[in-house]
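Session log. Operator J.P. requested a structure for one protein chain; no other inputs attached. Running the standard single-chain path with token output.
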Amino acid sequence: MKIVIASDFTDTPGGRNIVDGPFSGEEFREKFLVPALNQALSTQQKLVIDLNNLYGYPVGFLEEAFGGLRLYFSPEEILNTLDFKLDDDIEVIDTIIEFIKSSDRDNPRMVYKNK
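Structure written below.
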């Protein structure tokens, strides 16, 4: 399974939340990541996220899209299922992994919606 953000969603990611404008991290998470991650988990497949060919990597977008997955899944489920593809600036992948790991489990916002 694979999501190519540039062609499946947008090559110009926006801000954190839907209210911030088009192509937000929240929109990407809800429309693409959560359904695809659920499918990958149920079929025991990896989900590759292709980050190539984007015009920037807004921090709010990355944190909301990937860190926000903690609303639905444990960090272990996310990190064991997702693989990232990025040909340059691989520090972006490290940043995403930190967002997934560091989402505060005690934060009331981080209550699993489907568990």
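Operator note: Helices lie at 5-8, 25-43, 59-66, 75-81, 91-102.
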